[in-house]
Amino acid sequence: MINSYLIILGYNSSLPIYNHHPTSQILYMRENYFLIDCGEGTQSQLIKTKIKINKINNIFISHLHGDHYYGLIGILSTYQLLRRKNILTIYSPKGLKEIIKVHLKWSSTKICYPLKFVILSSRKKEKIFENKNVKIYTIPLEHKIYTNGFLFKEKKKLKNLNIDNVKKIKEININDYINIKKGNNFVKKDGTIIPNKFLTFKSQKPLSYAFCSDTKYSPKIIKFLKNVDLLYHESTYLQKFKKLAYNRGHSTAIDAANIAKLSKVKKLILGHFSNRFPYIKLFEYEAKTTFKNSIIPKTLKPYKI
Length: 305
Ligand SMILES: [Zn+2]
Description:
Helices cover 24% and strands 27% of the residues. It has helices at residues 42-49, 72-81, 96-106, 163-168, 177-181, 196-199, 222-225, 242-247, 253-263, 281-288; strands at 5-10, 24-29, 32-38, 56-60, 88-93, 115-120, 127-130, 134-140, 148-154, 160-161, 186-187, 193-194, 200-201, 208-212, 230-234, 267-271, 294-295, 302-304. It contains ten helices and 18 strands. The protein folds into two domains: 5-157 and 204-304, Metallo-beta-lactamase, Chain A, CATH 3.60.15; 160-201, no CATH class. Zinc ion binds at residues 63, 65, 143, 214.
């Protein structure tokens, strides 16, 4: 099984600059490809990853500032050209459906695949997705307009059988495997209990990823981020612009590092850097003074969760 990983397609803030792209990420988690935000140029970045865009069935849009969704109409049109069949679900704040409708209307495009919108409006954390492997929750953020982050959590994995030991117990047959994989002991006909730990190997701990899009410093989110394996948190400004950051609904690198530290996450990726700071390594230097395992990302590089 491939381990979960994150690819950052773009991490720039709103003003375009050469060779940088606005926010967009692709998360592979246990057989699912999730697209998170969709700034301009997302499609061309996706092509470079060699991930087939038809594998994406769920798109999560944090908020309706253009640098987080202007690439979406392009992707929806490409799906049309590819004669997509699968249902595509877009999770976003109110308004996006109308925006897309207008685009499609005035280009006389009739979408040939099922397109579903899940409108997010709650100011509280809510579960918005669940399948056999993954659960996804919103993370309410504090920005200039209604904004959500997203928390992606793997579900508990089944244990692997210690097949050598399983075969030592003659009474166990193939129909018992699923129960053993779920962590149950095996009870023989004479009542003898064979402990599960004899029959299985320890399963890998479920992993988690949190995406915190545009937000001012918001300690309220710490409780949602406890112990996540990987956190992306915006850091538009350096510390000397702390006040400006807060007033504009954004964070500094130290703010992001504080959130990471207080949430006890394992690793922090910074992003959404303002163009007024051409040397972005400074964001990493500042963040590391508070939370050591902080990095600025490289686009298109897979980061293991
Ligand atoms: Zn924004």
